[in-house]
Amino acid sequence: MRLSQSPSSGAPFVLPPVKRVEILVVGRLKERGLRALCDDYYRRCKQSIEVHEREVSSIEDVARDLERGRRAFVVALDERGEQLTSRDFAARLASWRARADASRLVFLVGGADGLGDALRARADATISLSTMTLAHRVARVVFAEQLYRAVSIQQGAPYHRD
Q1: Which H or E element spans position 82?
Q2: What are the residue boundaries of the structural domains of the chain, listed by start?
Q3: DSSP string of 7-34?
Q4: Does residue 108 contact residue 146 with C-beta atoms inside 8 Å?
Q5: 25: Cβ–Cβ under 8 A, 6 or more apart, which residues?
Q6: Where are the alpha helices (DSSP H) in the chain?
Q7: Are residues 37 and 43 in contact, defined by beta-carbon separation less than 8 angstroms?
Q8: What is the spatial distance between Cα 47 and Cα 67, in angstroms, rounded to a whole number?
Q9: pLDDT tens for each residue of the chain, 162 residues long
Q10: What is the CATH topology of the domain spanning 3-155?
Q11: What is the CA radius of gyration of the chain?
Q12: Which of 160, 55, 51 is nearest to 97 (CA)?
């Protein structure tokens, strides 16, 4: 059993069991520097979660993946989604990982044209990285960093500063 501090209140809580976090992304990240940043943040997460990013060529491929896989709790990243602080995202991530009704936690990152209405409707939750529109390749790096930040908050590591 691993204990940590609650991201919002500072009270101790039991970290949920380690689960695989999947990130389904429309499009390829061609810039080596951005790819290296994402991979570095995913590697840093390994102590707490296993992160698997998969690039697909279309939103139809994302929909097919969700249909044929095990039950997934799906979080869409969309500019119209709920705005969260880093601490709120850390708490939400912990609750999503602890859900007993899903064996997968999947984050969806759209391509240049976003995710589309059908995938947004399929999502169990929708969050926004910013009220500004971000290039999808930039959103990927921002999300990778926020995922690592959430894990570090859950672990009580000194990476996040209020």
Answers
A1: strand 72-83
A2: 3-155
A3: TTT--EEEPPPP-EEEEEEES----HHH
A4: no
A5: 53, 54, 55, 56, 109, 136, 140
A6: 32-45, 59-68, 86-98, 117-122, 136-155
A7: no
A8: 30
A9: 344 555 566 665 555 454 789 999 999 999 999 999 999 999 999 988 899 999 999 988 988 888 887 788 999 999 999 999 999 999 999 999 887 667 789 999 998 888 989 999 999 999 999 988 889 899 999 999 999 999 999 999 888 888
A10: Alpha/beta knot (3.40.1280)
A11: 15
A12: 51
Picking from 118, 142, 133, the residue whose alpha carbon sits closest to that of residue 62 is: 118
| Residue appearing with tokens 């990476």 | 159
CB 62 within 8 A of CB 123: no
Q: Which residues pair with 55 in a beta bridge?
A: 25
